[in-house]
Amino acid sequence: MDVGWEEFGWERLADGVGRRRLPGWDATVGLVLGERSVLLYDTGSTLREGGELRCQVESMTGRKVTHIALSHPHFDHVFGTAAFSGAEVFGAVGVDDLLRRERQALRADAVHHGVDEAAATEAADTLVAPRHTVSGEWTLDLGGRQVLLANVGPGHSGHDLVLLVPGAPEIVFCGDLVEESGEPQAGPDAIGSQWPAALDRLLRLGGEDAVYVPGHGAVVDAAFVRTQRDELARRFGVS
Question: Which of 6, 28, 55, 76 is buried deepest, with most CB atoms within 10 A?
Fold first, then answer.
């Protein structure tokens, strides 16, 4: 199941599990290989970036991405989804309607943050909304490996979906509920009053010995997540 992650610029986290930190905003995409299926967690900030990820996965594994989980509806995590034709797309409940409704706002945000206007327009026009939405937890069988999608938000956004990969240790892809390379970003759709509680749920899901993969930055441990939780609680005036 294992592949040569490093030669393609990916970080191996466990057998059949890895991630890549993308240029620009240092956003993480995750990859989980099963015997039958291949799951990608987030898809990059443009169709071109999504296409590059698709080519890398196929070169590394000889297989196509069959499942996509979107951590939250910000352009740097979802704009590459249309590059993965035929993949089953999952997101937190409500994110499907939001992506259909807010595609022009996402386009404007991408341009504001430096994405070429034509590339942002192309990505917004072809934006793929999840077919499957998760209101609680959803177990996916990838063939010889089961993973868990969990809607632990809201927090960083109104639609935060995390990915748990069982093992020793457990690996938790956190999306932007956790950030390591800078202070957690709280945009207009953040729900600060509920963000600490979302991290409490995240910690219960992964446990003390899990590896936590932030949406931006280096891999962290439970102590880091707990410290960030307490800092967010102080920031937003909640317990």
Answer: 28
1 has pLDDT over 70: no
Instruction: Give the angle subtended at the CA of 161 by the CAs of 5 and 35, to the nearest 5°.
Output: 40
Write the pLDDT tens digit of every residue in 101-136.
999 999 999 999 999 999 999 999 999 999 999 999
The token duo for 184 is 């957690």
Contact predicate 108/86, CB 8 Å: no
pTM > 0.90: yes
DSSP string spanning 42-100? Answer: ---SSHHHHHHHHHHHHHHHSS---EEE-SSS-HHHHTTGGGSTT-EEEEETTHHHHHH
d(CA 108, CA 74): 11
Which CA distances in Å does 175 have to 42, 58, 71, 207? 9, 23, 5, 17
Return the SS3 of 147.
strand
Long-range residue pairs from 230-239, CB within 8 A, at least 24 positions apart, any chain = 230/196, 232/184, 232/192, 232/195, 232/196, 232/199, 233/196, 235/192, 236/192, 236/193, 236/195, 236/196, 238/192, 238/193, 238/196, 239/196
DSSP letter for 203, please.
H
Distance CA 90, CA 105 (A): 21
Could you tell me which residues are beta bridge partners of residue 89? 68
| Cα–Cα dist 182/187, whole Å | 14
How far is Cα 116 from Cα 95, in angstroms, rounded to an integer? 25
How many Å apart are CA 204 and CA 27, to the nearest integer? 24
pLDDT digits (tens, 9 = 90+) for 94-104: 999 999 999 99
